[in-house]
């Protein structure tokens, strides 16, 4: 009778033994680990050094530069415009700003107007340390008189209560002031008016000049003068009460003067054009007509 096959013991390799031992060791380590929710994480403290006196001074200086960036830009544009420093390369200031800075007419004059307002605010002792930090804060105030601008800014700062002073806050304050002093605008397109500069720094040197209304707004008019276009408050205008035909004559004269002014002629010509810009009559004399015609020929050549 044959013998049943004998059972041989299964050999266990050393690698298998080591693997089993390692697994047991891992399980044992996991079982002995502390609950993660009660674990303590050690964070090394990083010492923050205080600013030195010189660093504090530098920080304040740099912050002021950031805050005054729009103001400095506006001041520079005013000088570039008033001194006509772009006349060698561009016919008009508007073209120059667009080519050199990418500013359209609206943006250029927003910065110019803002600089005029900030200059006015700096005259008020109560405002020295709380000047605007962005052009958008200033824009609504350009419609007000200098004294009203100071009043509006102080009121807006008070309403902000130490928080960020937004353009919306300023706009609301300005609106209330304008409603308080609202005067109906009765001027018409094409009407010829005299400029009353009073205490408006933007109109410095323009007092007594004539201007032609090109747009009628709620509280101001856009007017064309011998050297460009301006936004002027109603309180700075006085109608000459010219007849319609006389207004048309002045429109033609204004167009002719503007073309010569933009022609890039010598600075000496500017004095003559400025004298025409202060005429108190709706016509040119024979000599004035001859000189202006000669200048028109020059810019064509």
Automatic annotation (TrEMBL):
<feature type="compositionally biased region" description="Low complexity">
    <location>
        <begin position="11"/>
        <end position="25"/>
    </location>
</feature>
<feature type="compositionally biased region" description="Basic residues">
    <location>
        <begin position="1"/>
        <end position="10"/>
    </location>
</feature>
<feature type="compositionally biased region" description="Polar residues">
    <location>
        <begin position="26"/>
        <end position="36"/>
    </location>
</feature>
<protein>
    <submittedName>
        <fullName>Uncharacterized protein</fullName>
    </submittedName>
</protein>
<feature type="region of interest" description="Disordered">
    <location>
        <begin position="1"/>
        <end position="36"/>
    </location>
</feature>
């Amino acid at each position: 009778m044959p013998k049943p096959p004998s059972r041989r013991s299964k050999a266990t390799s050393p690698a298998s033994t080591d693997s089993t031992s390692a697994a047991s060791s891992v399980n044992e380590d996991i079982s002995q680990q502390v609950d993660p929710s009660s674990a303590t994480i050690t964070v090394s403290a990083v010492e923050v050094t205080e600013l030195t006196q010189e660093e504090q001074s530098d920080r304040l200086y740099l912050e002021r530069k950031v805050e005054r960036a729009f103001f400095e830009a506006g001041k520079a544009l005013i000088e570039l415009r008033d001194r006509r420093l772009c006349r060698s390369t561009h016919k008009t200031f508007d073209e120059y700003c667009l080519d050199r800075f990418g500013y359209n007419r609206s943006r250029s004059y927003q910065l110019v107007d803002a600089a005029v307002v900030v200059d006015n605010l700096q005259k008020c002792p109560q405002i020295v340390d709380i000047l605007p930090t962005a052009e958008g804060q200033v824009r609504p105030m350009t419609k007000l008189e200098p004294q009203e601008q100071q009043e509006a800014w102080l009121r807006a700062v008070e309403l902000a209560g130490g928080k960020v002073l937004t353009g919306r806050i300023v706009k609301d304050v300005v609106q209330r002031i304008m409603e308080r002093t609202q005067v109906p605008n009765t001027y018409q397109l094409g009407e010829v008016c005299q400029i009353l500069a009073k205490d408006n720094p933007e109109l410095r040197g323009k007092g007594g000049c004539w201007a032609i209304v090109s747009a009628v707004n709620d509280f101001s008019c856009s007017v064309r003068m011998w050297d460009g276009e301006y936004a002027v408050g109603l309180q700075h205008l006085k109608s000459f009460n010219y007849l319609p035909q006389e207004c048309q004559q002045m429109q033609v004269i204004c167009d002719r003067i503007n073309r010569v002014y933009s022609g890039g002629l010598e600075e000496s010509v500017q004095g003559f054009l400025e004298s025409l810009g202060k005429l108190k009559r709706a016509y040119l004399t024979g000599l004035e007509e001859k000189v202006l015609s000669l200048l028109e020929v020059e810019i064509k050549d």
